[in-house]
Amino acid sequence: MISLGGLGTQLGIKLFEATRDKQIDLVARDALSARQIAAFSERIGSIGSAKELIADTEVYTFVMRAFDLEDQIFGKALIRKTLESDISDSGALVNRLTDQNIKTMYKTLGFAPGGGGSANLADPDWQANMIDRFKERIVLNNAAEDNEGAGLALDFKAKASGINSWFDVLKDRDLGKFMRRALGVPDAVIGVDIDRQAEIFAQKFDIAKFKDPAEVDKLISRFAAVYDVIEGVGPQQSSPALTLMQGAVAAGQGGSYAIVTIDIPSIARTGYNAYR
Questions:
Q1: Domain residue ranges of the chain, discontinuous segments joined by +
Q2: Is the pLDDT of residue 246 over 70?
Q3: What average pLDDT does the chain have?
Q4: Domain 1-146, architecture per CATH
Q5: Is a pLDDT exceeding 70 seen at residue 255?
């Protein structure tokens, strides 16, 4: 993978986007990922229930990784009960869990309540979309491991169009952190009642703008500047990733990039307040 380590948030985002296709290709070549993709392609169409999905370790692991639920892989009993529950019942397990990724997985797989099957799993187009989701999630998670700021921003960009309420944001740890930084909301707000948190964010930003790619990019730029100040992220002139990007520009690839160095101490002396 192409490392984003040692870069400021905005530059990390630019490097990721300039190399996204290459990184996705590298995921497909990785031995473990390639084996899981092959197992998924070969067997997902014959799986007839959530019980059968859980029983097939390779396919189940693929699905969990695709929905960024790798840390919950061992909770097989909970996942099975969730996938077999009835989302139309307000008291169903799928509606009681706070992790939005589980609900997204539930809806995407589409198993019938009570242990039935899903017509989605045998659809070639659905399968292709799942493989794309899997590879995209792997590269996003790798980016976040190298560069937290860039990872938060890229995750937000991937999810923004599907956000319909502030509760969608507040139930997602990474989205919540992104928005707090972007809007200058102190982390202490986490201790406030969730309804009040939603009101605070609604007063600061029109959530309908998440559907506008231009507004999403503006918010990401705002986040990058604030995040780097708060977290003390500075430019690394000797970074191999920076050298790679400069080489791409010189060769006429990947657009044009301007490296800007901000004097953080100077900003501090002016009385800058990231939470203003």
A1: 1-146, 165-233
A2: no
A3: 83
A4: Orthogonal Bundle (1.10)
A5: no
